[in-house]
Amino acid sequence: MANEDKGGSAAAWTAFAGLTPLYVFSSSLSIGMALGWTFLLVYAASSALALLLPAAMGRKRIFIFALAASSVACSLSASFIRIIDPFLFESTYRRLFLVAFTVPVLKSALMPETIADRERAWENVIRGLGYAATIVVFGALREFMASGSISIIAEHVSTSLLPMMAQPAGAMVLLALSMAGFRLALTLARGADR
Amino acid sequence: MTDKRLDRMVIATAASLLLCAGIAALASMYASGQGARFFEELASNAGSQKAMPSSWSTLRTAAVLGRMETAKGNHLYLLVLRRPGGEYRALADVGKEGTIHSVIPVGASNGFVFSGRIEALLGRIIGQRKDGDASPLDGTIKPLVLDVVETITNLEIDRLEEKDGK
Q: Nearest Cβ partner of B31 from A69, A82, A158?
């Protein structure tokens, strides 16, 4: 049980590390939503294909097809964002296509090895939603800490609270703080179990 | 599963993915058209001259996002000046002879500390503002503002040369 816990938290750390480029770029709620939505779509496309294609096709072929599907999903998401807000597209399009090659997406493109893994594949849905939510929350938090407002509630605000939080350094600081908080919460939860 | 059936399955999957890629390409073309229309409407609503329909061309050169033509023959350049922490958007109205007549702000990111100073510096460089106010922030953004003016100048030179060549 303890080993399983360790494995789970190690996977979470790997996912966090793999998502760092997206956290760094998610400097506002709108950018966070664009990246989060794209991530969710790409992750869903790649894990669905990895799960639904027959195992007889072979791991390599399934991986390549899943990656191709995630790239197509990424392109569709970029078009959707361009229709909704062309300015948002112009500031995010260089990073949007990075989403298809983040560690969690690459990992989800791998075919589940055992039947037990296949049966637990629905967990990917929750995982994908969770990762996407963290990207959105990260963007909202950074925007709030940088400007004292969030774009959905207040538009064109020119106040500033902690401008550093909108910069890449701010993302690293917030990431370090949230990881420390996460670790503390895990330690406390384990302590409570004993 | 027989080899033949497997091959057929691989071909079917590849064909479906190709079809999806085709749909994505069409969606991208549609989105590009919608984006162009959005920028033309933005220019028309910004209080400057109306942009001619279908005159938008994407440039993405330094801070210049694209260009539109007005009915009077002027050109409107859409500028997006980015710094870590946000962006400032404006339209530069450039005359037939290549002079920047005015800069009209069209928005900025929330809490972008440089937006006011970029507006002031741009206005001063093109002669729209005469006040001599200064800020410690100016030093960091002056190269960005000078670069955008230089980019517009180069783009206008290219455009006029292309026009004369025709």
A: A82
Its pTM stands at 0.86
* Three state DSSP letters for chain B: CCHHHHHHHHHHHHHHHHHHHHHHHHHHHHHHHHHHHHHHHHHHHCCCCCECCCCCEEEEECCEEEEEEECCCCEEEEEEEEECCEEEEEEEEECCCCCEEEEEEEEECCCCCCHHHHHHHHHHHCCCCCCCCCCCCHHHHHHHHHHHHHHHHHHHHHHHHHHHHC
| Residue A134 one-letter amino acid | T
d(CA B9, CA A54): 9
CB contact (8 A) between residue B111 and residue A75 = no
Q: Which chain A residues are closer than 8 Å to B80 by Cβ?
A: 87, 90-91
Residues B138, B113 contacting (CB under 8 angstroms): no
Distance from CA of B137 to the nearest CA of A (A): 13
User: What are the pLDDT tens digits along chain A (194 aa)?
Assistant: 445 555 666 777 788 888 999 999 998 888 999 999 999 999 999 999 998 888 888 889 999 999 999 999 999 999 999 999 999 999 899 889 899 999 999 998 988 877 877 777 778 888 899 999 999 999 999 988 887 777 765 555 556 778 788 888 888 999 899 888 888 888 888 887 65
* Residues in A 55-84 with any Cβ partner in B closer than 8 A: 56-57, 61, 65, 68-69, 72, 75-76, 78-80, 82-83
Interface with B, mutate which of A27, A46, A60, A79 (most B CBs under 10 A): A79
Residues from chain B that touch A80, judged by Cβ atoms under 8 A, are 27, 31
Q: What is the ipTM of this complex?
A: 0.85
Q: Which residues of B touch A28 (CB under 8 A)?
A: 86, 109-110
Provide the shortest C-alpha distance from residue A168 to chain B (in Å). 8
Cα end-to-end distance, chain A, whole Å = 13
